[in-house]
Amino acid sequence: MTLVRNPFDAGGYSLAEMTQAINILPDLHTRLGQLGLFRFEGVSQRAVIIEQSEGVLSLLPSVPLGGPATVGTREGRSMRSFALPWIPHDDVILPADIQGQPALGAFDAADPLVEVMNRKLLLMRRKHAQTREYMEMNALRGIVKDGAGTTLYNYFTEFGLAQISVDFVLGTAGTNVQAKVREVLRAIEDNLLGEAMSSVHALVSREFFDKLIGHAKVEEAYKFYAATGAQPLREDMRRNFPFSGILFEEYSGAVTLSTKATERLVPTGEGIAFPLGTMDTFTTYGGPANLLETANTIGLPLYARQHLDDKGRWIDLMTEASILPVNKRPRLAIRLHTSN
Question: What CATH class is the domain 15-337?
Fold first, then answer.
């Protein structure tokens, strides 16, 4: 959506208009977003209560005020309340940003103020998208982190669950790699717990990928795949390799934290395997904006609003998101590593 009105007109853009604009601007296509792993679900509160029963995490439903409460048995269950992290990000449009651009209303010229606003909104959306990718990649591994890299919640610790980890021992030539893959597949199948899946995907670091395709018991299969499954002279063959039921993909994504430190989304020498085609395992919950007019409304992925300085000196652009990604079956995401 392109903003087409002059923001200096009376009232400028409403919260609804700005929010609609930023939510349909071109998105930064992060890898988990491309895979469609985490579905978004809006909630009306700024916190959620999650119940764990037999290894499955579920969100407790809301009920009308004064209505009957949901009842859970004590046996084998635990409940925790989690606040949705609030992620505000602001920018400002100054006269210098539009100085020297075509005058407002010039023939065949785009409104320079609108152009600047669209550009800034797109950049702000990309920052939120990168933050969401970072949070969802960590939630896939059972952890919630903020943009500073601080761990907010560890679902394994909160609910007394143990993460499944498979050591591929890729530094040993005699390792039966197919047996290791079967171990991962069976671990995922055993922990579906009523869930469905279509396939298994693994995002792995470049170090893990290189050791995998270079292993004595995998190398021939990789050469055959490179020769017949793709066009090696034209395609980057580092990207993925299907082997014994898992599609291994090299993923070197990294983010710059608010502390200016850089963190890789898949740790060095590791990987994470997870099912695709699930119905209700990977969910990102979104709460309403921290505004009076959005209180008790169903949350959206991202909110945006503007405020014109009383003396006309600048326009504040304000965005925010309140999101909490949850892997409801934490043991479905298998940590891959190699000890040598």
Answer: alpha beta
